[in-house]
């Protein structure tokens, strides 16, 4: 499939390489801007199982000013 795509690009070898790189950069950009953020809401990787930590010796919750 990649060979077919490369052969379908117009121009000499240098132009084909530059066009292929531009296409790859465009696909990566679209994935990073639209697909991955949309998909992250369905991913369990960002779920946290830890609650806020307490320090009994200090009598305060982490993140609160002393």
Give an overview in words.
By secondary structure, the chain is mainly α. It contains two helices and two strands; from the N terminus they run ααββ. It has helices spanning 2-8, 13-40; strands spanning 54-55, 60-61. The termini are far apart. The model has no long low-confidence stretch (mean pLDDT 80). Keywords: Membrane, Transmembrane, Transmembrane helix.
User: How would a crystallographer describe the biggest sheet?
Assistant: 2 strands, antiparallel
Q: Mean pLDDT, nearest integer?
A: 80
Choose one word for the global shape. elongated
Secondary-structure element pattern, one letter each: HHEE
- Strand sequence of the main sheet, in spatial order? 1-2
Indicate the radius of gyration in whole angstroms. Answer: 24 Å
Low-pLDDT stretches: none
According to DSSP, the number of beta strands is: 2
Content-based structural category: mainly alpha
Residues in helices, as a percent range: 40-55%
The total count of helices amounts to 2
Keywords: Membrane, Transmembrane, Transmembrane helix
Can you tag this structure with a few keywords?
66 residues, 53% helix, elongated, 2 helices, mainly alpha, two-stranded antiparallel sheet
